[in-house]
Amino acid sequence: MINVFETMNKPFIKIILLLASGIFLFSCGSKKKDANATGPVPVTLDTVQLQTATYYDEYPGNTVALSQVELHADVEGYVTGIFFKEGDHVAKGQKLYEIDRSKYIATYNQFQANVRVAQANAEQAKKDADRYIYLNAHDAVAKQILDHAMVSLQNAKSQVTAAKQDLARVQTDLRHASITAPFSGTIGLSQVKLGTLVTVGQVALNTISSDDPMAVDFVINEQQLPKFLKLQKQTTRPEDSLFTLMMSDNSIYTYTGNISVIDRGVDPQTGTIKVRLVFPNKGDLRSGMSCKIRVHNTDNQQQLLIPAKAIVEQMGEYFVFVARDTVINEDTTKKDKKGTNGPTLAAIQKKVVVGATIDDKIIIRSGIEPGDAIVVEGLQKLKTGSPITTGKPGAPQGAAPKNSSTH
Known about the structure:
By secondary structure, the protein is α+β, with helices and mostly antiparallel strands. Helices cover about 30% and strands about 30% of the residues. Strands 1, 3, 18, 19, 20, 23, 24 and 26 form an 8-stranded mixed sheet that branches.
């Protein structure tokens, strides 16, 4: 086999290698030049300022009936009457269900008769005892006969007591054959129909819950407990401490609420404690609804407010880009028109703790300071350390930055 390189002259091989090296170096230089040609990312800045903020702290909650009970049958029998409309408001003592009363009426009559018989026997025993007492006083009867008469009288009285207790028991069964509302409230869907055979301890016939007032339960962090204890103790509530309710459609409930109770202790697993509010209810609230409790913030201190669009969320954490007039590396140092070196702006990512949202702005609890210049537009291409400019795309890199208007 003929070796091609052996047939070539050495000077010719050197020329080929030099050409290949030049092409490689030219390609790398072009890539570097293209990368440098990208330049700083054009952004819009805003200056962080302290502002007076009126806002609400929001907590997810659920409506809860202050009183709720399942209706069960205490006697066995067929349902012979249903005296309500499902979902209606019922009054305390209103008759709701009736279980076949015929056998309980018959049993009641029977035991009522037993009481009368026992009472008659007791009256006869008393007359006999009185007669023997009189005879004994005149030594006209044996002592033993008197003793027997007195025992018979005592037994007759005991039989009357037993008969009355049996009558009370069957009277209770008769009363339980009619099921009434234990309190005023809203009744749900009936679990039985006319003719259904019900037994003691069976599945609940229905559920009734109180509806006015209505409670709303939510949880707070234990660090917030002193604030809520202070609100609970206030006898007069200023306007900014009222509790309002946001419905699931984001509408605000008409009436304001008050603290009813704060739970006895903090949950050691979650570090939270339950708070219960009560609201007047004219029919709009039903037990089990999801809602939001809004607590009007009473802090008069000024807050750091920034546009919500300046926030970047990553894995449940929140960040903003702050503009810093600093040199990150040699590429961020440019020459101005006079030929002197000067640093460009760089975007530094800062972790922040966010608070309440107010319209299109968010309260920042910590992470940035008043006077910081933050990026509000152009965040998509940024990473920490990215050079930035406030000029329009294509503008000279040495253009002076101009901040957007501040609040």
